Amino acid sequence: MQLAAAWSVLVLASCSKTETRATTPSAPVAVKVETVAAAELPGVYEVSGTVRARYTAAVAAKIVGTIREVRVQAGDRVKAGQILIVLDSRDLEANLRRAEAGLAEAQNAIPEAENAIAAARANLELAQVTHQRFQDLLAKKSVSQQEFDESAARLKGAEAALQISLSKRQQLDARHGQAEAEVAAARIAAGYGTLAAPFAGLVSERKADAGTLATPGAPLLVLEQEGPLRLEASVDESRLRLVRVGQTVPVTLEGLDRTVDGRVAEIAPAVDAATRSFLAKIDLPAVAGLRVGMFGRAAFPAEKRSVLLAPAAAVVERGQIRSLYVVEGDTARLRFVTLGESRGDRREVLAGLDPGEQVILNPPAALEDGARVTR
């Protein structure tokens, strides 16, 4: 009995000590704080775009025809005038030969026409001399009126024959000119059977293969001229006032991890009704490694804006969640915040914090929401 009573006293004493330890308040954590404030910063309007060649050409056929041969691949560099695509143009070549034959026929008829004119002129001269002689004889009553009238008729016939020969010569000249025009047109049409590079450049796209039916206007290849490149970016129509031709803007090239100065060379005259934006073309300097299709960002200066800046040392990042500790009285309170751009050792706070609040710098890993702190 005495042993049981002693055991009960010992258990009660142990429980009393445990409760005393649990209710003992923890010591406040010493922290360093900083008061956040709003700041006026230069505004920046940033747009993204794609690096393009300054001059691009879509190579297309002018006639309907089956493609016999495509002599280049995407990525090939070509020279100006180099043959890229050959079409089946046998019918065009036949038309050219037919036109050339017509021209040769017209040319061969020219000597015959000239001979006919010469003969008609000789007959006319003879008829004129003869008629003059008959006129003199008629005055002397040496010939009859019938003979004189026959001489006059022969003169008129000679004159008409000459006019007919001259008319035929004019018709032949017209036919010859028409034949020359037909040959020229046939040669041009036959030239449509081969598609050549309009300038030296890079084949960026190949859209057709041998056996494909080419139709007028349908792109078969896309050719980009080698040389300086440009960034093509879409700008919201409400920011049109921020962009002007000749303006110099910084362009960040993500793939090269560098920023260069670009110059606004062109602004599209019309706004895209679907996106409510317009296209700005920004010329880029020659940069080693820069390629067509790379991603870039251009920054246009905008109006100043008031932002709340917090020290980066106060930000706690856990995955995609960003937070910081705010001191309220002598208590640390965890705040989830939305952050913007980095500004040196500061971060823009877009939501979750107000000006004048104090944030804890380099919060200890063991710091919890509601913990007591001292400054």
What would a concise description of this structure say?
With 375 residues, the chain is an alpha+beta fold.
Give the SSE map.
Blueprint (H helix, E strand, L loop, with lengths): L1 H21 L6 E2 L1 E4 L1 E17 L2 E5 L4 E6 L6 E2 L4 E5 L2 H50 L5 H47 L2 E3 L4 E6 L6 E2 L4 E7 L3 E8 L11 E6 L4 E10 L9 E7 L11 E17 L4 E3 L2 E8 L2 E6 L1 E6 L2 E6 L6 E4 L11 E2 L1
Helix pairs in contact: 2-3
Task: Supply database-style keywords.
23 strands; OB fold (Dihydrolipoamide Acetyltransferase, E2P); 375 residues; 4-stranded antiparallel beta sheet; alpha+beta; 6-stranded antiparallel beta barrel; Elongation Factor Tu (Ef-tu), domain 3; conserved putative lor/sdh protein from methanococcus maripaludis s2 fold
